[in-house]
Amino acid sequence: MTPESLYVSRRAFLAGAAMAAAGAALAACTGGPATSPSFCDGATASVSHDELGDALTSCQDITSYNNFYEFSYGKESVARLAQGFKTSPWTVTVSGLVDKPGRFSVGELIQRHQPAERVYRMRCVEAWSMVVPWTGFPLAQLLEDVQPKAEAKFVRFVSFYDAKQMPGDSSLPFPYFEGLRLDEARHDLTILATGLYGKPLPPQDGAPIRLVVPWKYGFKSAKSILGIELVDKQPTTFWSTLAPSEYGFYANVNPNVDHPRWSQASERRIGVLERRETLLFNGYDEVAPLYAGMDLAENY
Ligand SMILES: Nc1nc2c(c(=O)[nH]1)N[C@H]1C(S)=C(S)[C@@H](COP(=O)(O)O)O[C@H]1N2
Ligand SMILES: [Mo]
Predict the structure, then answer these.
(1) Cβ(124) – ligand 1 distance below 6 Å
(2) CATH of the domain at 123
(3) Using one digit for the tens of pLDDT, what is the confidence trace for 140-156?
(4) Residue 37: pLDDT over 90
(5) Fewer CB within 10 Å, N side or C side of the chain?
(6) 99 CB contacts (<8 Å, ≥6 apart)?
(7) pTM of this prediction?
């Protein structure tokens, strides 16, 4: 080796080590190793900030720090374990108390409802949050198509489950199930998301179609939905079945109602150092009329 090649390679080595250290520090504070960069190559959003002035969370963080228990308890391993998840073909069944039940392929739903960008804050009950540029369409549009009967008062959502493809803890009561009051489901903020950062959803974020209810804790936003059912009684939910004292049906983001294990007064925005105060309804004040006269501590 010539002195120059030694010098150059040593310099490259040092630069590489510095990069690796910086990368490790970044991973430590944002919660994990990056996913395959390919999904985020060419990721696009029309804005860099939400309407409150908060920066979008990076594509890398949104796709590598995930709660999806069908795959794993470990947020940082979901992306890897979900890589081969088969999400096509995929049909969503809408049934129950409706005049026009139907089965819709995700392709048909996209054709008919023309998903558009919706930048929403996403607040997990574990007190971390993100700002995500989803692509989606109002659930209200799909409900309009199936025509709920007068007796329909709630909407139930059921996720996909296949133990062969999903190596998470099979003693949990999968498939994951969730619910909304019909008026919540019809609110314009409630969307079915089919993409993020301008691309079809990656498996770890709930491909090919997931619910997003931005004023509620993240666990309400069921991923990889197969079934939507209109019912007359308040449905049970995955988390309130597992731990009724910890997770209620409403799960509205509320700084004044603590979870037994997590104060909800403040939150950690992924990729941002300082904690921030939690906002009532996650800052979506327009949903307040849905809960007029309701005790939000009792209806947690
Ligand atoms: N089917 C299913 N949906 C789910 C979950 C899950 O484990 N399984 N986790 C929920 C929780 S706790 C959160 S915080 C969000 C996380 O969504 P994200 O990984 O896209 O940020 O998904 C929700 N939807
Ligand atoms: Mo969550």
Answers:
(1) yes
(2) 3.90.420.10
(3) 999 999 999 999 999 99
(4) no
(5) N
(6) 146, 147, 148, 149
(7) 0.89
